[in-house]
Write a structure and sequence with these properties.
There is one protein chain. With 95 residues, this protein is an alpha+beta fold. The chain is 45% helix and 20% strand. Strands 1-2-3 form a 3-stranded mixed sheet. The mean pLDDT is 91.
């Protein structure tokens, strides 16, 4: 985990994020079972409300993984128990 204290503070400030991360982690594992993940806090230099947590997936083949990532990104849309605001505070991308 990069910038661990900042990640922790951000999650504490937005408590529902932890539940959301716990919900999408098995999905990430289903789509990328052998890849490692890195979580990082990303601070917007101008607006605090645009800060977010990034989950990076360290893959092998960008082309193949990019297609898989696009399929994965549709999954959280169907998780209705979290608001768009919470979903917008967590991003998943390839490293």
């Amino acid at each position: 985990m990069h910038n661990k204290e900042e990640v922790k503070a951000f999650i504490e400030k937005h408590a529902e994020i932890l539940d959301y991360i716990e919900e999408i982690t098995p999905l990430i594992d289903d789509y990328f079972p052998k890849y490692s993940k890195i979580i990082e806090f990303c601070k917007d230099p101008e607006f605090d409300r645009l800060d977010f947590v990034m989950i990076y997936i360290k893959g092998e083949s960008f082309e193949k993984d990019y297609e898989t990532l696009n399929r994965f990104k549709e999954e959280p849309l169907y998780i209705s128990k979290f608001s768009r605001n919470i979903k917008g505070l967590v991003c998943v991308e390839l490293l």
